[in-house]
Amino acid sequence: MSFDPANNIQDLQYFGEFGGVNPSISDSSTYTFLSAKTMFDTFEGNAEGCYLYSRHSTPSNLYLGQALAAMEGTETATVAATGMGAITPALLQYCGQGDHIVSSRTIYGGTYAFLKNFTPRLGIETSFVDITNLEAVEQAIKPNTKVLYCESVSNPLLEVADITALSALAKKHGLVLMVDNTFAPLSIAPYKLGADIVMHSLTKFINGSSDTMGGVICGSQEFIDQLRNVNDGACMLLGASMDSLRAASILKNLRTLHIRIKQHSHNAMYLAQKFEADGLKTVYPGLKSHPSHTLFSRMMNPEYGYGGMLTIDAGNLETANKLMELMQERNLGYLAVSLGFYKTLFSAPGSSTSSEIPLEEQAEMGLTDGLIRFSIGLDNDIERTYQMMRQCMIEVGVLS
Ligand code: PLP
Q: How far is CA 51 from CA 6, 57, 245, in A?
């Protein structure tokens, strides 16, 4: 394969101040200058290699950004305190009063709420579309549309965006294609497929230990410089900067991402196949029954699999809740939002992570109240996990 994101990360080499095998952490919020002139030049963005103030950038944040840019194949990247702290400034850097965004309607609830409820206050309107219907996407584009926004694999419905086709549409209409790749790191490389900007919540698979929040925007040097500009950069001025200690810890976890993703994907595929064979309504892009299975297969880096996320339909919310409580009691995972942990996490998105989406819109997009979203863990013996989950399903009446 010509583009291997894990090789690209591995090929970077950094040393600590005293020859440490990990880069030193820049534990400072501000930086000294030997001359006042260099300080002035740094403010103007003209002093390569100088640091100013940690909301702007820090050596630790730059190391992490560099590794994530290598992973996505972009020129550079900038990290942020959270995923939302990356997504919101990226959108606001491009869009202002009178601009329009075309967005997938199945996106993370927080991003949906930002576009639906918050950006209209700034004069930015969004049309939400079925991202798998390219005709509908094109029809929604207006003369004032600036951004086409989607998730590579959507939260929580696991719809797959045809990034190559969306990129062609974006180019035809002069739009910027922004892709949130939180659900499919390594498996899908959106920039290589034609996206302009790739974002992640690092809080999830990339950090992988559910102890840290983080976000990243991967793109061109020109765009990242704009975001960091002291006069009008949305990252610099909105202030959701990552702390250096966190950047250092995420960089260390990033080094095992390729191993973890393979195991997440292996386990999720195993369970999805078993659940489907048992007659459960199961959604997983690795299943042939998934409407975008062929599309995902065409876009993916095959060795990393179809990712760790799957959904099943337990029929109704009450049964879904019973099942999740029982699985937690049996220590099969945690009833918790978020994803990408070593342990399986499950939640009912309709009443949690997607509750910002009004009920009638949830129904329209196929988000049923019995839907359980699983982030499958790194379990060593997935057959044992399956047997125990199956037993729980029988006890709550999801399976007979
Ligand atoms: N994007 C996706 C797909 C998510 O699932 C989430 C969080 O759940 C976010 C973005 C937001 O990330 P964070 O919680 O780190 O702000």
A: 29, 7, 16
Q: Does residue 296 share a domain with residue 250?
A: no
Helix (H) or strand (E) holding 129: strand 125-129
Q: Is 108 in the pocket of ligand 1 (CB under 6 A)?
A: yes
Instruction: Please indicate, yes or no, whether residues 78 and 222 belong to a single structural domain of this protein.
Output: yes
For residue 84 and ligand 1, the question of a CB distance below 6 A is answered with: yes
* pLDDT tens digits, 210-235: 999 999 999 999 999 999 999 999 99
Of 254, 286, 310, the residue at which a domain comes to its end is 254
Q: Are residues 290 and 231 in the same domain?
A: no
Q: For ligand 1, is residue 180 a contact (CB within 6 Å)?
A: yes
- What is the Cα gyration radius of the chain? 21
Structural domain for 379, as ranges: 258-396
Q: Is the model's pTM score more than 0.85?
A: yes
Whether 273 and 314 map to the same domain: the answer is yes
If one counts every other C-beta atom within 10 angstroms of the C-beta of residue 122, the result is 11
**Residue 353 Cα, ligand 1 centroid: separation in angstroms?**
9
DSSP 225: H
